[in-house]
Amino acid sequence: MKNITIKDIARELNLSTSTVSRALRDSTEIGPETKKRVLELAHRLDYNPNPVALSLLSSQSNDIGVIVPEIANPFFAIVIAGIEDVAFAQGYHVVIYQSHEDYAREVLNVKHIYNRRKDGLLVSVATATTDYTHFKNIHERGFPIVFFDRICEEIDTHSVSVDDFEGGYKATEHLIKQGCERIAHVSGPDHLLISRRRLQGYRAALIEYGKPLLDELVVSSPYSATNALETVQSLLAMPKRPDGIFASSDNIAIGCHAAIIAAGLRMPDDIALVGFSDLPIAAMLNPPLSSVAQPAFEMGRSAAELLIKLIRNPGEHSTSISNMLKTKLMVRKSSMRISD
């Protein structure tokens, strides 16, 4: 089926292509009678303008690029739903890219988004990324970027995150109030800000309640259940093992959960466990996993709103905005020995 072009309309009406183009754009240079003829024929022939050509003319595509580590992660799926909720209402299409936690793939995604003239970028940084040059290069050229969840501190732009420190504090405080004395923390990768903030919250709660800070009880794992399962086995093999674990993510907590069961230990009697994110699967585990809930949908909405403001008013925001959303501790059987 042939795509109808401006040339086809111009040939049919014996007009120049520039006249037809102006008529379709409702230019005041074209008389009402000519406009009417052009629009009627365009409608009859089911003419649809080429979006790439339009973006070249207007310097806008009405497309927003979104890079997430993995769409299969329910947290990012919910964030994307929030992004789309705002973007669609504002006339933007959302194009999703996955880094799969890989630096090289993330770099290629950024280049593709920039070269394909997307209007802006929303991104949660890959675990493997420690060099942010690919983001800096396009940011310095004026390309709008907003970071969410895993943010880049080296670039002065808008960001949306949760209060990771508070979430880490609440999780650890809860374990203390359940009677835990040796509370371990399975942290995420050290170079990620979310990992460091959650670790700081854990430490602050221990200090506040007069509990010892023991380096041997803090271990690091990628945000992966498989890796965490292997990592936490070293904690469980200690002569004096922990009686509580705060995991930096639910994916890590799922690995901890499996390792605890495999070791023949009971939750929460032998070890109490708390995760972070409150993925849908958390409530379906046996026992159900306590977790720090993040407002993922609201994070997506907030990030999209900030990006669209940057796109439409590029010179208006001289000071970067950092939206920090609140968390909520969801207490379930994996940690609940007594009521707080």
UniProtKB/TrEMBL annotation:
Keywords recorded for this protein, A-Z: DNA-binding, Transcription, Transcription regulation
Species name: Spirosoma linguale (strain ATCC 33905 / DSM 74 / LMG 10896 / Claus 1)
Keyword Transcription: yes
Name of this chain's protein: Transcriptional regulator, LacI family
Database matches in InterPro entries: HTH_LacI, Lambda_DNA-bd_dom_sf, Peripla_BP/Lac1_sug-bd_dom, Peripla_BP_I
Keyword Transport: no
Source organism, top-level taxon: Bacteria
Record SMART domains: HTH_LACI
Record GO terms (molecular function): DNA-binding transcription factor activity; transcription cis-regulatory region binding
Pfam families: LacI, Peripla_BP_1
Boundaries of every HTH lacI-type domain copy: 4-58
